[in-house]
Amino acid sequence: MNLEKKIAIIILQIALIPWALAGVIAYLSAQEQINAKTYANLAAFADLQKNWLQDAIQNKLDTLSLVSNDPELLALFHEYQKRPTVLAQKKVQTYLAGELGGIQSIQKLFLVTPVGIVAASTDSSLIGEDVSAEEYFKLGLRAKDASTLEKDSAGVLSQYVSGPIVVQGATEGVVVAVSDAHEIVSIAKQYQGLGNTGETLLVREVNGGDALFLAPTRFDSSAALVRTIPASQVNVSALHAAASGEELIFTDTVDYRGVKIFAATRYINNVGWGIVVKIDQSEALAPVRRLGELFALVIVVAGFLVVFISISMSRSITQPINQLTLFVRKVAEGGNLQQSIVVTSKDEVGQLGAAFNNMILRLREAYTTLEKKVAERTSELAEKTEDARNSEAAALNIAADLKDEEEKLAAEKTKAENLANDLKKFKLAIDNTSDMVIIADASGTALYANPAVERITGYTPEEVVGKQSGSLWMTPEAAPFYEKLRHTLREQKTNFTGEIQNRRKNGTPYTSFISVSPVLDELGNPLFFVGLERDITKEKQIEKLRVDFLSLASHQLRTPLSGTKWLIETLRSKVLGPVTRKQDEYLENIYSINERMIRLVLDMLSALHFESGDVEVEKKAVAIPEIFANIMATTRVVAEKKHIAIRDKSAEHEIPQIVTDPAFLRTILDTFISNALNYSPDGSEIVFDVVEEKGSVALSVQDAGIGIPPEESPRIFDRFYRASNAKAIRPDGTGLGLYIAKMLAEKLGGSITFTSHTGEGTTFTLRIPTSPAEAKSVHGTI
Amino acid sequence: MKYILVVEDEDFLARVLRDNLTLEGYEIDVAVDGEEALEKIRAKQPSLILLDLLLPKKDGFQVLEELKANPDLKLIPVVVLSNLGSDADIKRALAMGADDYFVKSQHPIAEVIERVRKYVAGAGTKQ
Fold first, then answer.
1. In CATH, what number is assigned to the domain containing residue A238?
2. Structural domain includes residue B126
3. Average pLDDT of chain A to the nearest whole number
């Protein structure tokens, strides 16, 4: 057996035996206590039952003695005994009936002559019966109050109480009262407090030693006056003891069923009955049994625990020893001195390990010294000759090494200095930038704030650092915005930008443009946040002024133009009088100049409006045929005048669904078609088509017009730019149509391209992405 | 004779409208600001109101609002003639109860007269 097992067994013994002993002692003591308690309970119950029974019987006897001592009854009975005439008997009989009427608990009352013949009875059928053999008669005749239980002819259990009739010292007969045995039986049937198996047995000794049950038992309802326990059946000791008048406690006996019981016996003196109060051992001892089971369970669990603990403790003791053994073996067999044992424990084994290490160290030293000495001696000669040369080479090497080191150090220093300078410059840059810069930790608490924070918000960087970023200048209305910001940064972990109304320390509101980016670690969790904030209050004010100006300018420019337009129209309508042909030509010139001005103002205002950036794009599914028809309606006059056919090729095939801003789309297509009409020869054809491409829809307008000169094509979308050949045939264009169209196309996420051959024609194509997702991805790759 | 009120602060525009409409056979009166317009409308109910929007004292929107709030006047047709041409202005005026809206420079006067004729005849419909 190895050490590990030995130690384990010792621990097991030490740990388990006291446990087991303690358990057994506890078990025995519990059993003893419960037994003692059971006996005491049984004895107390037996006393109680005895008292009840005695009281009940005494009640009946008291009643009977009232009857037997009634002088009038005695006189009448004496008279009858002397002269047993019918009349005398009738008198006794009448009197008896009168007596019974006054006593409710008694059912029958009868008088028996000393020879055992019933002389008078409330139950007339009994008169003349010979009851000399009955127990109650025998007891009554012996001038002794007696109570016994008998069964009548119908098998009903009744209580018979009898006493002697004594006249002038001589016993002249017996008076018997019969009543329901119910009271007695119910006492015997009192099981409350006796669990599921306990009961009270009433017994009387018969035939010189047998025990007769007087009342039904819990487990044998027909036992009353029938069942006996013969004297020969010695193991039913409690019943025999009770019947023979002994008052005892039985700690180990059996009852009439042969079941092991605990019992207490009592004796009712005045009637000669015994009672046995008993309970099954199995029930009384149930708590002890449960305790035993619990204890056994605890022992088993504890046993497992102890086994486990003892094994691991034993291991912890033996493992270092095993290691040490292995190590010593390695050192001893392999001669390897270049190792040491790792000593972790601080106990004796640990000390042993340390001692070993020390010893090996010493050995190693000694061995090294020895080797060195041998080597020294053997190489001494050679060394001497090499010495000079070696020293020289060594010196050179060292010098070279030193130089390398120096250079490396210098390089490192420069690098560090550069880095420090970079950082300094970087900080200087942030400190001096006009935008607010705030760096916050992962919880949003500001770690750094640059001086611009104070310039913009009025709060010093010291006030800002350590607080939740933005909390100082956030207005209550802006709270949802900040909530969105936090969500974007924390959940989506992407950059957040937006405009927000904040409040300076002095209470004045200001508008900022905010851009916050999370800096993520390798796992994608935010390390910190870098926030930039620009005060755009002035820009916003300027923007508002610009919009207001535009609106005003729009009105102010248009008013004289529209006035002029209507005045000329009125003149030319001749409602005010005749106009000469020459005058009308002039009026027409002025009118077209005015019209051109109107167009120019309109286009300029639209260009300015779209450039302002606050144009909302409202995308929805658009109906191309509807938009096309709409454009046709406005261009019809020109097209008819020039005999130009506009063919809708898209109507000849399936066209894809387009989701975009219909007003923008209409303006763009209107520009395409108007241009085509303006720059195409009379009688030519214009073709409109819609084609689905990969990820986009292409809407094109093809004409057979003058074309765009190649050298001018790069400038065709510039503001106010007009191609030379276009200017030549239409001097009144504004040069803003394509500029606006391109701007709108970009707002839709699309693009405009064209192909053109001078003198042959041009095709303009608008491409719109088919879904927002694709539009975004296209955008992302730029 | 049908009576039309022209609300227009620009003298030459008022005149060209008055001349054309008089020739059409209507009785014309001109109001040069919003307050004057409301006074004249209350004094004598016109068959049609031609309403400019940018006006001194009370602007066209205010005039429109007061007219439409008055059960006696709210059924008089109102055609807005304005140089304000943005979608927002047009939608706002129509939403407030204007029956029609012309951006002046975008339409020949003949078209305006034609529309007036229809409204006065009771055949005008909302655009």
1. 3.30.450
2. no
3. 82
**Exposed (0-12), middle (13-18) or buried (19+): which is A380, by Cβ within 10 Å?**
exposed
Q: Which residues of A touch B13 (CB under 8 A)?
A: 559, 562-563, 566
Rounded to a whole number of angstroms, the distance from the CA of A594 to the nearest CA of chain B is 10
- Asked whether residue A325 is assigned to any structural domain, the reply reads no
Q: Which residues of B touch A573 (CB under 8 A)?
A: 110
Residue A764: CB atoms within 10 A of its CB come to: 25
Nearest CA in chain A to B104: A562
State mean pLDDT over A94-123: 81
Res A321: pLDDT: 79
B10 touches chain A (CB under 8 A): yes
Could you tell me the pLDDT band of residue A771, with boundaries at 50, 70 and 90?
Answer: low
- Which pair of structure tokens corresponds to residue A230? 């013969």
Question: How many CB atoms are located within 10 Å of the residue A488 CB?
Answer: 17
pLDDT at A335: 67
Q: How close does chain B come to A532, measured CA to CA in Å? A: 35
Residues of the domain holding B93: 3-120
Answer whether residue A406 is part of any domain: no
> How many separate domains does chain B show?
1
Nearest residue on chain A to B23, judged by CA atoms? A575
CATH code, domain carrying B16:
3.40.50.2300
User: Same domain for A572 and A506?
Assistant: no
Residue A493 covered by a domain:
yes
Q: What CATH number did the domain enclosing A690 receive? A: 3.30.565.10
- Which residues on neighbouring strands pair with residue B99, listed in sequence order? none
Average pLDDT over residues A165-169: 79
Residues A7, A322 contacting (CB under 8 angstroms): no
> Would you say residue B125 lies in a domain?
no
Q: Which residues pair with B79 in a beta bridge?
A: B50, B100
Task: Give the mean pLDDT of A611-624.
Answer: 78
- Is there a single domain that holds both residue A777 and residue A665? yes
A567 and B12 within 8 Å at the Cβ level: the answer is: yes
Q: How many other CB atoms sit within 10 Å of the CB of residue A227?
A: 15
Which pair of tokens denotes residue A578?
A: 């005749």
A267 or A616, which is more confident: A267
Query: Total structural domains in chain A?
Result: 5
Q: What pLDDT score was predicted for residue A763?
A: 92
Q: How far is A674 from chain B (nearest CA, A)?
A: 17
| Contact with chain A for residue B56, Cβ under 8 A | no
According to DSSP, the residues that pair with A500 across neighbouring strands are A512
Q: Cβ separation of A569 and B108 shorter than 8 Å? A: yes
Between B17, B83, B106, which is nearest A559 by CB?
B83
Rounded CA-CA distance A112/A115 in Å is 8
Instruction: Note whether residue A312 is domain-resident.
Output: no
CATH number at residue A111: 3.30.450.20
Contact B85 A559 (CB under 8 A): no
Partners of A148 in the β-ladder: A160
Domain that holds residue A593: 542-598
Say if the Cβ atoms of A558 and B85 lie within 8 Å.
Answer: yes
Structure tokens at A212: 């007769």
Residues 6+ apart with CB under 8 A from A213: A201, A202, A203, A220, A223, A224, A225, A226, A227, A228, A256
Q: Looking at the partner chain, which of A563, A598, A602 has a beta carbon nearest the beta carbon of B13?
A: A563
- In the prediction, which pLDDT does A445 show? 87
SS (H, E, C) A562-624: HHHHHHHHHHHCCCCCCCCHHHHHHHHHHHHHHHHHHHHHHHHHHHHHHHCCCCCCCCEEECH
Q: Any chain A CB within 8 A of the CB of B75?
A: no
